[in-house]
């Protein structure tokens, strides 16, 4: 059994023009819903994630508990405002996915912050429609509005839809993949 997985780091460095966000999705923030609704969306996406660390957490804890602990950990480790965490819905009102942009603590530079997208996901029934691109654009746009000097993210080397989205949105691969313990 593998005891590690590999992540590819990506970076978005400012200044860049404000990213255009496709208009296929309607976004609602954590201000407009309960934490339980948001957690349910994370649980749904996490339950069939391509990220091996998510798969391990779901195996060990179950999807609901893994999602709940993931959200609690974000609150402890990063700064964010409730309006930044959003669910995306299609034009029929069906849930598509979620975004969790956050700021690193203590990583400011020249009156700007360093951000990351703590978690992003598309629910299984909406996959294959390139919605991850729309979600990533929205998360990046929000971080640009907040004022970041860079957005630093990573994804599992097996998550080809996320890798493609990072590339298509304009993120650059920061380095070769790094190993993380499972």
From TrEMBL:
SUPFAM superfamilies noted in UniProt: Acyl-CoA N-acyltransferases (Nat)
N-acetyltransferase domain boundaries: 45-182
Protein name per Swiss-Prot or TrEMBL: GNAT family N-acetyltransferase
Record organism: Nostoc punctiforme FACHB-252
Upper classification of the organism: Bacteria, Bacillati, Cyanobacteriota, Cyanophyceae, Nostocales
